[in-house]
Specification:
Length: 77
């Protein structure tokens, strides 16, 4: 059984409205050194199939990420 983590973020150049809101809030609270904040998502699951990396990549390309505007990184333990 593999433990899988998929990190999904908007691609560079795509406006991250949530990231800008977080950045503005942190700056407003006194952390003025924060810049270029990006908000993404983490998807975790167990997978019991074969060829984990290839199958998770298919999952990402099919459902877990919108590959037009998002990139992803896969971790398998």
């Amino acid at each position: 059984m593999a433990k899988v983590k998929v990190h999904v973020f908007l691609k560079p150049g795509v406006l991250d409205v949530q990231g800008k809101a977080v950045e503005g809030a942190l700056n407003g609270l006194g952390w003025t050194g924060v810049s270029e904040a990006r908000v993404g998502k983490l998807i975790q699951f167990d997978y019991a199939g074969d060829d984990v990396e290839a199958e998770v990549k298919k999952m990402c390309d099919t459902l877990l990420a919108n590959t037009v505007i998002e990139s992803y990184r896969i971790e398998v333990e």
